[in-house]
Design brief:
Layout: H1 10-30, H2 42-48, H3 59-70, E1 82-83, H4 92-104, H5 114-130, E2 137-141, H6 144-160, H7 164-167, E3 174-179, H8 185-192, E4 200-203, H9 213-225, E5 229-236, H10 248-258, E6 261-265, E7 290-294, E8 306-310, H11 313-320, H12 325-328, H13 353-364, H14 366-389, E9 393-395, E10 403-408, H15 415-429, E11 433-439, E12 442-448, H16 456-473, H17 480-487
Parallel strand pairs: 1-11, 3-4, 3-5, 5-6, 6-7
Antiparallel strand pairs: 2-8, 7-8, 9-10, 10-12, 11-12
The chain binds pyridoxal-5'-phosphate.
Length: 489
């Protein structure tokens, strides 16, 4: 018996592969005609739950299960009217790149090979985009949550020195600062770095959702007076709830004066640097010590593709380099290749994420990606204007980038509950998928326009559907509207 997993005759699998590619292109080509999302029926969940398959199942049958049980019930973020959370829309070239990367099955933890050169190129482009020096270091990771963790760890090493890796933080008294609107992964990063969530001071925001610098100054002074050791300030370029961008230049000045590490969470906002129209909003990002962001959000690269870039490469290597192993690396052969990615982050085995970034940026061009970001901001401005015109809608936050928070208003009843129900109505009807959040204590329907496929018509569909669902729920129109809502699928 031949133990290899390769087929004895390639023609059958080859034909199936061609069918898969065709089916997926069909899916992308027609996805606008289908619902944004549909709930997964219990029967389909039950069918997926199977005992460990001991015996082989033909690939065509497994593929058929994928088509029946998985494809129809995916997240929906490919769809132009998916506006929930901050999800990227992916792209067909990135999809093909994923296939090619799996074909090579490269391990990018280290060694001397071309896939690592591709990742180095991607990091160099990221540095160029941010206005960082060309010798900045960086690495691709799953997402900004992990990229932020790496930022915190590098800042910790920069403050306490590399000995922290052996000795731990002990009673170092390190404290960090970020805005009250910062993403929840930052307290988690402090927790995972052994510093504790309470050592992250959440600084109040102004009316535009930006960290208040006067509050930051006051809090740092208070901590210094208390004998603590401020080491890090984290600015946000595009807050998750409303899209606010902190005063990055002001934070850079302050961090420089106080000798704090300046990290920026630019999960989606950093990509604004590719748009001449949006770039001024990020002024100061080029002065950060490190920036975390995602290619899988505004840059439309398929999941997952997070990135951390560090201005001073030595600090990143000090934090993760395996006991100076990088200095001992061989000069020749496959074991050569200089600094390996495993010296720049916590992962040893790593896949070829870089290929989908490299191919997406190469094929579409960085300017086009920047133009998509700018276009989604224009669509958000249009949505905000329409909300402002509608007497039954109320906008709950300023629109700095591409996120609009609003709600349906009614003279009586629980508005928070009403708007949660409206968002779920739209999702379950497959019309649009906004998410919800809380702004100044009020439940908001939150539309994050991230997808390159979203058009003006999609914005109109969202608003019309919110109005219709709100009116049905507040009984301002006959009950038959419920049927109409479903018919809009
Ligand atoms: C501002 C911000 N930071 C961090 C994250 C977490 O990013 P990821 O989901 O890629 O880990 C998000 C996700 O939306 C975000 O908006």
């Amino acid at each position: 018996m031949n133990d290899s997993l390769d087929p004895a005759d390639w023609s059958g699998l080859r034909a199936l592969g061609h069918r898969m590619v065709d089916d997926m292109f069909d899916h992308l080509e027609t996805l606008r005609d289908g619902p944004v999302w549909r709930p997964m029926p219990e029967a389909a969940r039950a069918e997926l739950r199977q005992a460990l398959p001991r015996d082989p199942v033909p690939a065509a049958a497994v593929y058929d299960d994928f088509r029946r049980l998985v494809v129809p019930y995916a997240t929906g973020n490919l769809h132009p009217r998916f506006m929930g959370w901050v999800h990227g829309g992916g792209n067909p070239v990135g999809m093909l790149a994923e296939f090619l990367a799996a074909g090579l099955n490269a391990n990018l933890g280290g060694r001397d090979h071309a896939p690592i050169e591709v990742e180095r190129q991607v990091i160099a482009w990221a540095a160029e985009m941010l206005g960082f020096p060309s010798d900045a270091s960086g690495v691709l990771v799953t997402g900004t949550s992990i990229a932020n963790l790496i930022g915190v760890l590098v800042a910790r090493t920069a403050s306490l020195g590399p000995s922290v890796r052996r000795r731990g933080v002990r009673g170092s008294g390190l404290v960090a600062y970020t805005s009250a609107a910062a993403h929840g992964c930052l307290p988690r990063a402090m927790d995972m770095a052994g510093l504790g969530r309470e050592a992250l001071r959440l600084i109040a925001c102004d009316d535009d959702g930006r960290m208040r610098l006067d509050e930051l100054v006051r809090r740092v002074q208070q901590d210094l007076d208390d004998g603590l050791r401020p080491f890090l300030v984290v600015g946000t370029a595009g807050t998750v709830d409303t899209g606010a961008v902190d005063d990055l230049a002001g934070l850079a000045d302050f961090a420089e004066r106080q000798d704090l590490w300046f990290h920026i969470d630019g999960a989606y906002g950093a990509i604004a640097a590719l748009s001449p129209a949006l770039r001024p909003l990020l002024t100061g990002i080029e002065r950060a010590d490190s920036v975390a962001f995602d290619f899988h959000k505004w840059a439309q690269v398929p999941y997952d593709a997070g990135c951390i870039v560090v201005r001073d490469a030595a600090r990143q290597i000090e934090t993760f380099g395996a006991e100076a192993a990088y200095l001992r690396r061989e000069q020749r052969g496959l074991a050569g290749g200089g600094v390996w990615p495993c010296d720049l982050g916590p992962d040893l085995s790593r896949g070829f994420r870089a290929l989908k970034v490299w191919m997406t940026v190469s094929v579409y061009g960085a300017d086009r990606i920047g133009a998509i970001a700018a276009r989604t901001c224009e669509l958000a401005a249009m949505l905000a204007a329409r909300v402002d015109q509608e007497p039954d809608l109320q906008r709950l936050a300023p629109v700095a980038l591409n996120i609009v928070c609003f709600r349906f208003i009614a003279s009586s009843g629980n508005l928070d509950r009403l708007n949660v129900e409206i968002a779920a109505d739209l999702q379950e009807a497959g019309i649009a998928a906004p998410s919800t959040t809380t702004v100044n204590g009020a439940l908001a329907i939150r539309a994050a326009i991230v997808n390159h496929r979203t058009s003006e018509a999609d914005i109109a569909v969202l608003v019309d559907a919110v109005l219709k669902a709100g009116r049905v729920r507040t009984r301002c129109v006959p009950a038959r509207e419920t049927q109409m809502l479903k018919a809009m699928r």
